[in-house]
Specification:
Largest sheet: 5 strands, antiparallel
Strand order of the largest sheet: 2-1-5-4-3
Strand content: 25-35%
Number of strands: 27
Radius of gyration: 45 Å
Length: about 750
């Protein structure tokens, strides 16, 4: 004769659904291994704890309300959210009330069907990246706080409600003198001894009873935990009490009641099948629902392949594959797989199947759990299609796309990798900080911190990054805060605006030059004519009148300064009427060598004992440029360097090629060890008419800037007072002459 108790017990232990029993106070008195797995807790931790402790506050209200209805015989199922560490587990709870032999309500038994994966797919279709988290909240029934002398410092509300007292009635009393313990002198002494034992640093456990405000005796499991500070001294003792009265009173367990097993078998939210000798032996109601069968006759004595299409989705024949799974299960190896079944109507559905071996009275059975996953598969396919569209859109974007989380690059598209010059493996999961220009890191991460705190949601700003080949480019970032893989992150579109900013700067400079040039022409015209008259008259007077002494000296000063003013005006006119560049193929090395020969023989350089040095890369490519404008650039920078050196100075020039993104450039670095440029002047030295020299016109470096801009190049300067100045010029090798 088959032992049904053992069969049902085995069913329950191996079911894919959770089985949980609570008493009328919602204390957990039994749960199967699946419940422990769902909640991430051991049986011992769950046993005799409140079911409510594992739910959110909103769900607790739902359970309490439904529990009241269950006492009246309600079987209504509903969804609940359980906490599992940092995860939320969603399950459908199918309850059934339990009555004792006197038809008194004593609790409830319920099936928990985990639908978390279905919920995840539903959420994923709404948002690929955002998920929700819940906060785990687990409280003991009674919790108190004592000082080392045993004086009560605090107690939670549950403990106070038990004795019907307020906190002020018990605080600052010896714990053994409080109403929890005052009903029995022997129990008071046991508590004193336990506290003394806890003061040795050990955790103390014992069992006792308390009398509640209604005079009812309740039994408790007491734990005294010492709290030790950094000096290894005990500063508090924490008593925790768990009510196990109902556990003591239960004399019959779930496993001793055949009707309860049968109830669970029929209540399961997944199909349960029993196979013997390769054919179906029994099934529950849910199985018939899945197959849309009118009765179990559709299954009994049939083999699995008779309820399946000829072939499975991998192309294998159903009869061969079914026998392989059944053979492995009979050998004691659990089988977990997907299978296509046929409903009684002939319609296919996809199921997740779990097969386990059970042995009853030396008879070998296979029990199976069948879950319809057709909708989940559809959701998976929809999610894959959604993610594929998103991935394609991101990879084809003209802008860089990044996700930064915890300061690390968690996602990078190919466009941003091209900007950086790094491979995917060289950038992914690396700190964003290492790619940002040192001078920009502080304000970038200030924005990042504010965004992560939720102080700002989106913002757009520029900052500089350093590429793999050590180029500095300026990017425009449009950043927003998102939830990525359950945690806050920054999602951004990145655009290289280096060339755009250069063009803007060039346009602004060109407009400024145009305005200044027009003004210069007007001023030169208004001053030039009177000055010519003065110079002509002074020359005539000097030639016709014989002057001597101071008069002769004064006349010479007039002629000299007038000629100097005339030269300045001519320079103004030259600057205000720039000639059009005459581009041709130019060898920069030849221009540098020619000018070096001139400077080495210049008397002013010799008088100051200035040493000229140059380093020129061999086989330097030729560039498209106006040679006279390039000479004018070098001439002005070298003369400024000469004027900045008092004596015994050094001027060096380095010339070498650069290659980036298949475009070539020439870099020219000119250094001197002169007096340097004050920090407050460094940003205005290229402004027209700015000069720090008594005899300067203020047009030299303005001309340098203008000429470099005409060649689509760039120039930067850095200087240290007392150490010298360095000019860094970059000129493209190729440029459009029609530009």
């Amino acid at each position: 004769m088959i032992n049904y108790d053992k069969i049902f017990q085995t069913f329950i232990d191996k079911m894919n659904d959770g089985i949980i029993q609570v008493d009328k106070n919602l204390n957990i008195v039994y749960c199967n291994p699946k419940v422990c797995e769902l909640l991430g807790q051991s049986f011992e931790h769950l046993h005799h704890n409140l079911l409510l402790d594992f739910l959110s506050p909103q769900n607790r209200e739902i359970v309490e309300k439904q529990f009241e209805l269950r006492e009246q015989g309600s079987h209504q199922s509903y969804e609940l959210e359980f906490h599992k560490n940092d995860q939320i587990i969603t399950a459908i709870l199918i309850p059934h009330p339990i009555y004792d032999e006197n038809n008194e309500f004593i609790g409830s038994v319920a099936v928990l069907n985990d639908i978390s994966e279905r919920k995840k797919f539903e959420q994923a279709l709404i948002s690929n990246e955002e998920k929700y988290k819940a906060i785990f909240n687990n409280n003991f029934q009674f919790t108190s706080l004592l000082d080392p002398k045993g004086i009560l410092l605090d107690a939670n509300q549950i403990a106070l409600d038990f004795i019907g007292k307020e906190k002020k009635d018990v605080i600052n009393q010896y714990f053994w003198d409080t109403p929890w313990w005052s009903h029995d002198k022997h129990i008071q002494q046991d508590l004193r001894n336990a506290i003394q034992h806890a003061l040795t640093g050990e955790i103390v456990h014992f069992e006792t009873y308390h009398i509640n405000a209604q005079g009812e005796k309740r039994y408790f499991d007491i734990t005294l935990k010492p709290v030790i500070d950094s000096n290894n001294e005990i500063i508090y003792i924490v008593p925790e009490s768990h009510d196990f009265t109902d556990r003591r009173n239960i004399t019959k367990s779930l496993y001793e009641n055949k009707k309860r097993y049968q109830l669970l078998f029929e209540m399961a939210s997944v199909g349960i099948i029993i196979l013997r000798e390769g054919s179906f032996f029994d099934c529950n109601k849910k199985t018939m629902e899945l197959f849309e069968a009118e009765s179990s006759r559709y299954f009994v004595d049939k083999s699995p392949e008779e309820l399946s299409p000829e072939k499975q989705k991998d192309g294998c024949y159903s009869n061969i594959k079914a026998q392989e799974y059944l053979k492995a299960a009979l050998e004691g190896t659990p089988q977990d797989f997907e299978w296509i079944f046929l409903k009684e109507s002939g319609k296919e559905f996809i199921a997740r199947v779990r097969l386990d071996l059970i042995v009853i009275n030396e008879t070998r059975f296979i029990q199976g759990f069948v879950t319809d996953i057709t909708e989940i598969k559809k959701a998976e396919q929809a999610l894959l299609e959604s993610e594929e569209k998103y991935r394609t859109l991101v990879e084809l974007a003209n802008d860089g796309v990044v996700i930064v989380q915890d300061g690390l690059l968690k996602f990078i598209n190919s466009r941003f990798l091209k900007m950086l010059g790094y491979s995917f493996q060289q950038a992914i999961n690396h700190p964003l900080e290492q790619f940002i220009h040192p001078d920009d890191r502080s304000h970038v991460f200030e924005y990042y911190k504010k965004r992560m705190k939720g102080e700002i949601s989106t913002n757009m700003y520029n900052f500089r990054i350093i590429t793999k080949d050590n180029r500095v480019i300026t990017i425009e970032a449009n950043i927003m805060r998102i939830i990525y893989q359950g945690k806050p992150a920054s999602f951004g579109f990145i655009r290289d605006v280096t060339e755009r900013l250069k063009l803007q700067e060039k346009l602004a400079f060109s407009e400024k030059m145009s305005t200044i040039g027009e003004l210069s022409r007007k001023v030169a015209h208004e001053i030039g004519n009177p000055l010519s008259s003065i110079l002509h008259s002074a020359s005539e007077l000097n030639d016709s009148v014989l002057l001597a002494g101071d008069e002769k000296i004064l006349m010479d000063i007039i002629l000299k300064e007038t000629k100097r003013l005339d030269e300045i005006i001519k320079n103004f006119l030259k600057f205000s009427r720039p000639r059009q560049p005459e581009y041709k193929t130019v060898n920069l090395a030849s221009i540098v060598n020619e000018l070096y020969l001139v400077f080495q023989n210049d008397q002013t350089f010799k008088e100051k004992n200035i040493v000229l040095e140059k380093t020129i890369e061999q086989d330097l490519p030729e560039i498209t440029a106006d040679p006279n404008m390039i000479k004018e650039v070098l001439w002005n920078i070298f003369l400024n360097a000469r004027d900045a050196i008092e004596t015994n100075g050094n001027i060096s020039l380095s010339l070498f090629s650069l290659l980036h993104e298949n475009a070539s450039s020439i870099q020219m670095i000119i250094k001197d060890n002169g007096k340097g440029i004050p920090k407050e002047n460094i940003n205005i030295i290229f402004e027209p008419y700015f000069t720090s020299k008594f005899t300067g016109s203020g047009l030299g470096l303005a001309t340098v800037k203008k000429n470099i801009s005409e060649h689509d190049g760039s120039i930067s300067v850095k200087s240290t007072i007392g150490k010298g100045t360095e000019f860094n010029i970059i000129l493209p090798v190729e440029r459009s002459i029609e530009k």
